[in-house]
Design a protein that fits this description.
By secondary structure, this protein is α+β, with helices and mostly antiparallel strands. The protein has two domains: 11-102, OB fold (Dihydrolipoamide Acetyltransferase, E2P); 104-146 and 184-251, no CATH class. It has helices at residues 2-10, 62-66, 68-71, 156-160, 174-179, 184-203, 209-219, 231-251; strands spanning 20-29, 32-36, 43-50, 77-86, 89-94, 100-102, 105-109, 122-125, 130-134, 139-144. InterPro entries: Exosome_RNA_bind1/RRP40/RRP4, KH_dom_type_1, KH_dom_type_1_sf, NA-bd_OB-fold, S1_domain, S1_RRP4. Residues 16-95 form the S1 motif domain. GO terms for molecular function: RNA binding.
Length: 252
């Protein structure tokens, strides 16, 4: 039991200001969202620290607070940045278009120490049409590439509304419905990349964009994507990493 507790502590995230993190919304509270980021306590994203859909820098209003669930709601996966520590806990901020809600993908959880802090944690893999976010907290997002949305200017009538209505799938045109679904090839690429991360995590290897894509390339020889999670492929990845480290020592 003691060993388990020690291992659990080692796997917990130790935040630093400026860290890119991925998390899941667990509560919508007054003027704030509470988010699970694999820390010893929930993180807080204040409404005032959020980039609103209209893109206008202004004071938050009562209407904004009423519309909080139209931005994030429970179980939504979001990306944000560690802002700092305050009396009410760890504070996040999402004042840029690169932050916000993540959709059409998979959320993975690996030990945080396998994700090294680097200059770039956002990756667009154009060849596969996917986005990859390596959260410093060990939560990793792999999903369909999302183009940055243009700032929307909401008219006066919309501002006066107490609720932002989301379009129903029944009111969407056929073309809109087709755009709402992720193509099969992209879904396969998401699964292949996610499985590569699972394999690397199982082997205890540091997860970087280079080794992830190398593992994805190796998997192309397999007939089925799920075979990546078998012991044979894990051995191949381990041998490949051993060779890489050996050649790196010789060069050094």
């Amino acid at each position: 039991d003691t060993v388990f507790k020690l291992k659990y502590c080692w796997c917990r995230y130790k935040p630093e200001v400026g860290d890119i993190v991925v998390g899941r919304v667990i509560e919508v509270a007054p003027k704030r969202w509470r988010i699970d980021i694999n820390f010893s306590q929930d993180a807080v994203l204040m409404l005032s620290s959020m980039n609103l859909p209209d893109g206008i820098q202004r004071r938050r209003t009562a209407v904004d607070e009423l519309n909080m669930r139209s931005i994030f709601e429970e179980n939504d996966v979001v990306c944000a940045e560690v802002r700092g520590f305050h009396h009410d806990g760890l504070q996040l901020q999402a004042r840029s278009q690169k932050y916000g809600k993540l959709e059409r993908g998979q959320l993975l959880s690996i030990p945080p120490y396998l994700v090294k802090r680097r200059k770039q944690h956002f990756h667009y893999i154009e060849e596969y049409g996917i986005d990859l976010i390596l959260g410093c907290n060990g939560f990793i997002w792999v999903g369909e590439h999302a183009e940055p949305k243009d700032d929307m200017v909401i008219d006066e009538q919309a501002n006066k509304s107490d609720q932002i209505l989301k379009p129903s799938k029944y009111s969407m045109t056929l073309e809109e419905q087709e755009r709402a679904y992720t193509p099969l090839e992209t879904r396969q690429n998401v699964c292949r990349t996610a499985n590569a991360i699972r394999v690397l995590s199982t082997l205890g290897f540091s997860v970087t964009i280079e080794i992830i894509m190398d593992t994805v390339t190796m998997s192309m020889s397999l007939k089925e994507i799920h075979e990546m999670l078998g012991s044979e492929f894990c051995v191949l990845v381990a041998e490949r990493e051993a060779e890489r480290r050996s050649s790196a020592k010789k060069k050094g």
